[in-house]
């Protein structure tokens, strides 16, 4: 499939309340067969789409949410128009109940609009659902304050979330329907041909390659990405661990699909998102002269990417921000950055 021959590592027998550290702190995707097969939502899904919909409705609190809708001719692929200047679907706020009724009317049809709720926080819209359908993520032993994992739900008929990456670690649980994922390590970014930064489906830059019909004339290096890629097929009750920054395309293959995922960051919560630094580097460095860019590359290698911490030759009391950041120095550094941006 997709010209990818490798498959992800698989493990079975892992408990949802005791996921090993070697999985959640690793840097390779791992399929967790049957991790959430005990969930009531999975059981209702086995009884059919309508039973699963009724079960979700029993927890829904009526709050509006963002609903994506695409015409039947996009075949569930949330993407761009022909010149990548606009998205090929519409986004509106609406009721989960109404959306589920629309999906129910598409069951059994070969051609129908695509309907999708993406990354809706469970606790804000489905209170109580996690009392019966949840996993336990135990953070690494640390004295640093960590943000709690974020649990989100994805609901829809057949859909394709184009290949993208997330800056957080992720465990995605297939609750209803079937999912197919294609995954690529972070170093494959150039071979995946990222799209625009300004307008993106779901807020993340995506690959411009149609994996089902790749145009090798336009995207020749995609063959290298295929050689490095891995495939995962998830049945109801299966889950997958996706490491930070791994590119992944996710397809919902059934007439009705529900996925619940958990995002978390093992780093201290006072650290900023690295994408902010990337955007600032575009503003401050990317379009400078070659010698200046080369000099800044040396600075980044020394201060950011060096295995030996910068300033290790200084007395500890003189290192300041060159020491490992804590909440106070992170606030100080952020204030300095804001002042510079506001000049």
TrEMBL record:
InterPro entries found in the cross-reference section: Cupin_8, JmjC_dom, RmlC-like_jellyroll
Cross-referenced Pfam families: Cupin_8
Source taxon at top rank: Bacteria
Domain JmjC: 115-279
Family annotation (SMART domains): JmjC
PROSITE patterns named in the record: JMJC
Xref: Gene3D superfamilies: Jelly Rolls
Protein name: Cupin-like domain-containing protein
Organism, scientific name: Salinimonas sediminis
